[in-house]
Amino acid sequence: MPIETIKCQECGSADVTEFKPGSYVCGHCEAIFKHVQLAGLGVGCEVDGCGVLAVGRCAICACAYCASHKSAYDVCDPCAARRAAEEREDYRQWVERAHSGLPANRLTVVLSDATFDQEVEQSSEPVLVLLWAQWVKPALDMLETVEHIARGFQNQLRVASLDIDKAPHVSQRLQVQSIPILFLYKDGEVVFQKVGLIDEWTLVQELRRHL
């Protein structure tokens, strides 16, 4: 007896896979069904009148977007662009605060082996700690960056610096092998760590995610 060919229930193609019990569709139709389910209503992309089958809804404005108009996050391209513009403006205002005002040495805490536990691990506030040394040029560059952080994040976190040459016990306990290195402590636990240089913009965004 000839073998019966199972065809797609939607388009008639013989290239089928079982999509759900008792229902057979081809790979193309299966992909479309999954997109329709993901979009919720099976509508077309609403970004700039695109009309291509939507694959999701924007987490900000709830419009339907297709794969071409989806940003790196679950938002449409226009919302992603607006968010980026708002972040740039917010950062510009932050820079104005951070690069002016009180001298940084009045805002940062200089740590030692004797004060580290009390000032950092037992602190009720988040603490950003920079481990540095006078003889490491990148560490001196980061020292300037954390001075800006101290100004820009007043009343949000404490900023501290630790010269590893003057605090060998803490350096050994933290297993420091390279400097500069940043630690963000929150409730006595390290929630963010970065070895080497980090630009000010990226550091600001990382701190905001944890504060």
Outline the structure in words.
It is a single chain. This protein is α/β, with parallel strands linked by helices. The chain has a domain at 104-210: Glutaredoxin (3-Layer(aba) Sandwich), CATH 3.40.30.10. The chain is 35% helix and 19% strand. The protein has helices at 27-39, 77-98, 116-121, 137-152, 168-173, 200-210, and strands at residues 16-20, 23-26, 56-57, 64-65, 108-110, 127-132, 158-163, 181-186, 189-195. The strands form 3 sheets. The protein has a 5-stranded mixed beta sheet with strand order 5-7-6-8-9. Strands 1-2 form a two-stranded antiparallel ribbon. Strands 3-4 form a two-stranded antiparallel ribbon. A hairpin with a 2-residue loop joins strand 1 (16-20) and strand 2 (23-26). Helix 2 crosses helix 4. The longest helix is centred in the middle third of the chain and has 22 residues, at 77-98. The protein is elongated. It starts with 15 loop residues before the first strand and ends with a helix. The model has no long low-confidence stretch (mean pLDDT 79).
Question: Architecture of the domain at 104-210, according to CATH?
Answer: 3-Layer(aba) Sandwich
Secondary-structure-derived class: alpha/beta
Look at the structure and give the mean pLDDT: 79
The radius of gyration over CA amounts to 27 Å
**What is the straight-line distance between the termini?**
71 Å
Give me the count of strands: 9
- What is the strand arrangement across the widest sheet? 5-7-6-8-9
CATH class descriptor name of the domain at 104-210: Alpha Beta
Beta-strand fraction estimate:
15-25%
What is the helix content?
25-40%
Q: Residue ranges: pLDDT <50 for 5 or more in a row?
A: none
CATH-defined fold name of the domain at 104-210: Glutaredoxin
Written as H for each helix and E for each strand, in order along the chain, the element string is: EEHEEHEHEHEHEEH
Multimerization state: single chain
